[in-house]
Design goal:
The complex is a heterodimer of chains A (287) and B (269). With 287 residues, chain A is an alpha+beta fold. Helices cover 23% and strands 26% of the residues of chain A. In chain A, the strands form four sheets. In chain A, strands 3, 4, 6, 9 and 10 form a five-stranded antiparallel sheet that branches. Chain A has a three-stranded antiparallel sheet with strand order 1-2-5, with no helix packed on it. A three-stranded mixed sheet of chain A has the order 11-13-12. Chain A is elongated, with a radius of gyration of 24 Å. Chain B contains 14 helices and two strands.
Chain lengths: 287, 269
């Protein structure tokens, strides 16, 4: 990842994210945290790629002017240690909001994203929001200096599971099972599905493909979800039952409540389940 | 031929053999219907093709061609022959274990194992035939005899100012330099920094062909080799300027100026 020591002073004011243990009044630019929204998701138009998205706003007027004039540039950095990837995407041509698609085969394991603003030449910045400790309200920094940096966003590029989508379903290997066999366990917070290594690999491949997701939904998730929905309908009014406190129970209950009324059919839980699992990874994600 | 991939239980079984019965590697009988690999435990990665004869093209170090030069040649062959191999696939131990035991086994034995003392045999097998002996990253990038060649070639493939072969030869000429770049990836994972470091190494050698600056055995300094101090300086400076957004020429200028601040004759702090 980019070498940025988030705790240190750069010797000049830098736009930074606001961390939970900080007060906005302690920031270099008082009450002006730099908090771009960074994201990663499957590319719906190309299932061999991930889409990386960003949206940022800079509230320091003189920095905005330098961004507009091209003297400061925004860069999105993608870092994946496992695959020796450190890709910096110049966002100048995209602007403050946009997305880029990157080949999925370049990633494995944890991906880190960070957005930075840097000086393309020596620049002069002025702001009345600069913290009084600096004892000035304008300064000059040299080319390549960091002007702003975001917090690092972490994602996971395992075959089918992105960290932003924290599903209630967890696939586990059971080498005693034959291909086609599976069972599940709902005694814990998540629904643990057990299958052979082969089958898990195939399920992950299918889940990664938009076209093949329906196969997994019909074969695995729909029957399990039907059972979950049935249990939720049975027990949702009985808070004393310990099962109602489990994460999967709460998640399914919330997702059911969010459905249109005509999709909630207590006498036909399979119908309700069907509407929940249309897009299983997002529909049954944990918020 | 499609790239083979072993099931995890086959990899685990081989690991146990290498750990507990290392001498059984001497005959290297790893056919898919054998004792250690069952017939249904070898599958295929459909996206990658290769010619199994590629391993016969690999060369061993010799008086004419040293370790670095032969590694560079082998890395290029392997990288070019494994058509369709992506970084994601290359980060799967099951792939390299399959190649190491089914096709590259004799090359690995001759290159890394032959002549090893009995008490080191097991450890050497674990290191060279698998990707897990010393941690994951090191396992792929420095240990497994085949994966490391591919990863070195992959890293070097992004260098624009040198041919792929030149970049590989530069990276691998000195083991100490290679370990500095590959083993400490904080900055060298940035493509432009990687390229700039190769160019600095070449400039150093052009300036003084006998330079020992990048050698661990620097005779003038027995406290800390100067290249390590150089690496620290680069890391330290990276906190001020963002290397990710700098171009190769700027980085070469910067690194060379840092290099010039280090006098080989002075014991560095």
């Amino acid at each position: 990842m980019m070498i940025i020591d988030e705790d240190k002073s750069f010797g000049y004011p830098v736009l930074r994210p606001l961390y939970s243990d900080q007060s906005p009044s302690d920031l270099d630019y008082v009450n002006m945290p730099f908090e771009p929204v960074l994201g990663m998701e499957f590319d719906r138009s190309d299932t061999d790629s991930y889409v990386f998205t960003w949206e940022y706003e800079c509230r320091v007027e003189s920095i905005n002017e330098l961004l507009n004039s091209g003297d400061i540039k925004a860069t999105l950095n993608l870092y994946n240690r496992s695959t020796w990837l450190n890709k910096s995407i110049d966002l100048t041509e995209f602007g403050a909001e946009g997305e880029v698609s990157v080949d999925k085969s370049l990633f494995s394991g944890e991906i880190e994203l960070r957005l930075v603003l840097t000086a393309k030449k020596d620049v002069h910045i002025q702001s009345d929001a600069i913290h009084k400790d600096y004892k000035y309200n304008s300064f000059t920094v040299s080319k390549n200096s960091v002007i702003a940096f975001s917090e690092v966003a972490h994602y996971d590029a395992r075959s089918n599971l992105l960290q932003t989508i924290d599903s209630i379903f967890v696939l586990n290997e059971d080498s005693a099972l034959e291909d086609g066999e599976f069972y599940y366990d709902i005694s814990g917070d998540k629904v643990n599905i057990y299958a052979s290594e082969n089958q898990i690999l195939r399920l992950r491949q299918f889940e990664a493909s938009e076209k093949l997701q329906n196969v997994v939904v019909s074969a695995i998730y729909a029957p399990i979800t039907t059972q979950l929905v049935r249990i939720v309908f049975d027990k949702q009014d009985d808070e004393s039952d310990p099962e109602t406190g489990l994460l999967w129970f709460r998640t399914v209950r919330e997702k059911i409540v969010a459905l249109p009324p005509d999709k909630i059919q207590k006498h036909r839980p399979e119908v309700t389940a069907h509407h929940l699992v249309k897009r299983p990874l997002s529909k049954l994600s944990v918020d | 031929m499609k790239l083979p991939i072993l099931k995890r239980k086959a990899v685990d079984r081989l690991w146990l053999v290498a750990s507990n019965r290392p001498t059984s590697y001497e005959d290297r009988e790893f056919s898919p219907d054998g004792e250690t690999i069952m017939d249904d435990e070898v599958q295929e990665v459909t996206d990658v093709n290769f010619d199994p004869n590629l391993f016969e093209q690999l060369v061993l170090p010799s008086p004419e061609k040293g370790v670095g030069a032969s590694d560079a040649e082998n890395a290029l062959i392997l990288f070019q022959e494994l058509k369709g191999m992506s970084p994601k696939i290359a980060r799967d131990e099951r792939v390299w274990c399959a190649l190491s035991h089914l096709y590259g086994k004799d090359f690995i034995w001759r290159r890394h194992v032959h002549g090893i003392a009995d008490d080191k045999l097991s450890r050497t097998l674990q290191t060279r035939y698998f990707c897990r002996a010393n941690g994951k990253d090191r396992g792929f990038e420095r240990d497994n005899a085949l994966s490391r060649l591919w990863w070195w070639a992959f890293m070097s493939s992004r260098v624009e100012s040198l041919t792929h072969a030149e970049a590989l030869e530069t990276l691998l000429e000195s083991t100490d330099f290679r370990d500095t770049v590959v083993g400490r990836p904080t900055t060298s994972i940035i493509p432009h920094v990687f390229e700039a470091l190769l160019l600095i190494y070449r400039r150093e050698k052009e300036t003084d062909p006998n330079s020992t600056f990048f050698s661990r055995k620097n005779p003038k300094n027995d406290i800390e080799p100067p290249y390590r101090y150089f690496a620290k300086l680069i890391n330290r400076h990276g906190g001020r300027a963002l290397y990710d957004t700098m171009d190769v020429e700027e980085l070469v200028d910067l690194f060379w100026s840092l290099r010039k601040t280090i006098n080989e004759n002075v014991i560095v702090p």
